[in-house]
């Protein structure tokens, strides 16, 4: 018996070299992860120094920015890649907030991008979100005199007076019209006005969210920001979170239980999966119809034409990603006029691979018309691989060459468009540092991975108009 135990234990033990190999693999993986993180920190430090921000790779003090979700969820809360500085004469802080739920093998890490601007003085909590089916049915919030506003927005605050002072009639009109306000949660709390979304920090989005926080055209009466509370003091506070306990009529529960107990085994095995498929198809179609209605309403409001799918939009470019993969589609195609130029935006979708390895890719595309057709000119950003292996056009500014990758079959057109003042502007503008754009044929376009987001369209369109403003007029004359 002892021999059997020794044999089984020796057969289950890994040889020493296998343990060494595992340790080497883990060590190499950890080294490259550490090296990638150090490169990212160096890049963020350079970006912060260039634009006058203070940067900390880790600063957990920002986890106390708010007492509400997601800042009160999970454990091991961290503030990562924290930037502080001034933007449009207000204090701004933006960072990646991270927390963990569960423990051991069941633990999950959650990340949020947070952008906040300083308020004139500290004020009570005021949480602005969007209603959904569950909140409309079960959660209580503050009601206003505008029913359309109540149907769309969910407002929570322990101080109703402050909520009514901030969200007055003009603010409600702005919130109902502004696509950003209809899409993002935002919150007043203490000395900060903040917005946040799930996902990692993206520098190319930060100033877009900051502009949104600053753009409120009607911030409320002056006494809202006075150091003493307004006359009358706070009104009775609503129940924290506004959530009421869920309940269901007893007859409904009993009938459901009775039906389940009376079902036969075959009905359970066959009927439940079929029902699940039917419900999935139904809710998918319903979600798509709601999406079409929302985009149609946006198009009508801004005077755009809308096509749920229109393949001719793919002809805007003959370069990747417009020529990548198979099954290419142009979805949610919008065409109209913005600042006296044609504006064209849509969601590009294509597939790579096949069968179980098939992957779907989405890109948001925003383009404005050019005064005349011109050759391809692609403006991207350098990385370690492109610097080493790709050839591009070289300009007289070394810092510009190190940062940007310029490709064009017409060097003369490229140098006419990207003259010294344009290079200075591109090196100074935060959007140009992170946004890719392209001249091709009749269009100046920009694109990024991900679905079409209506609240971003005019932000990118404004950026393209600023690019166009840098181009000398003689470039558009026939030569």
TrEMBL record:
TM ranges: 16-34, 264-283
The name this protein goes by in its record: DUF3137 domain-containing protein
Keywords annotated in UniProt: Membrane, Transmembrane, Transmembrane helix
Region (Disordered): 221-245
